[in-house]
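tool_call: predict_structure(chain=1)
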Amino acid sequence: MECSPGEPVLSLPLTMLDESLLILQEARSAWNVQFEVGVDHGLDADRLRRAVRSCCQRHPMARARLAPADTGGRPYQWDIPDEVDGDPLQVAECSDATALGALRADLYIPPIALDSSPGFRVGLAQRPDGDLVLLSASHMVADGVGCVRLMQTIARAYRGEPDPPDPLPLAQARDVGSFLAPQSRSEKWARELKLLRRFHEALEPPSRIATVGGADHDGFGFVFRAFDIGDKTPGLVQRPPGTTINDALVAALHRTVQSWNAQYGIASDRIGVMMPLNVRPASRFWDVVSNLTSMISVSTDPDDRADLGSATAAVARQTYETRRNDQAFGLHDLLATVQNAPVTVKRAVPRLLQLTGDRFVDTAMLSNLGRLPQPPSFSDSEPKELWFSPPCDPACSVSVGVVTCEQRLSLAARYRYEQFDADAAEEFIDLLVSQLGP
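tool_result:
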């Protein structure tokens, strides 16, 4: 669908990325994105509600609802009405950590219905030392960058500031085929070869994280850590040449899984970490509320993980900039092979993952938004807190989200209740942070 600036969008087809996550969610577990902003003062609930409503008017995907798909050839489609169907804001007095945990459970654990709009929830935690605005968005509606944009718009509307328009109409910005499709036959072959290598790699199932204190019910909890990047984090600043902070973080997670499993007498052979990648072009890297994320898998073996430096170098060989796009585009190529299949066939694909023993599902996930050029803020100062985390799958049972503001790195880990109890989750994340320290 093509549309011009200012023309109302009535419907949009789901992208292949949207559709794959939707079908995966139907078969396995809810996929939502967490993004939170804390302030050092109290916020006005009515003013925030108006700001959320303004955000829904500003971004078409904030009003999107899923049209029913039949079992034949008709594809999934987003219908975008002029108004949202409900008020997504929930206000709660959170005088302690228990009350805040209950609000997070309400926002993040239940699946977000997509047959009504908006496809996100907002919470206002009223705390004695400053309020917290919480956003839970369906990954099909907004990825991590999309959640940043939603929160930026909400914060700007709350403060009465203008929100700059996105540079392209939504339908054009979501046309992933225009910038993900191979540009030549040789590029197509190279990408297909990478897919074949991925299938070969998956012949060795990824190691799983040792379960400690896991419960027998669904859901997940959170662990939060924040620290300044500097002398106390040499793993991030004293990296091998040609590597990035993200490489070091992914490597640290690999080594954390290995060390954790060793404590409980479980061998760690191939460890795979799923790494979401923003596939927006560089010129509009922070624009558009939508799902414009691909995934790559980064694997290491025991020899790679001798120390953090060697693990970081092994990760960097797989995330090197000239290869990163090829790997991200590989998922696009894979999805394109089933693009025209009936919905019933597509729905069978995630169930096949279970029949293979989840060997194509990685050990853990790490998503790094990087340093935000314009952090959402509800006051004239930088936000007191910033938290972000991606979804976690029943097999890929721990996900780590990282976001940086100036030199402050905030890490939020999401873990499934079947994987850890609260104490074990804290211990696992402390082990992760220690990989980066002295």
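agent: Residues 245-263 form the longest helix (19 residues). Proceeding to next step.
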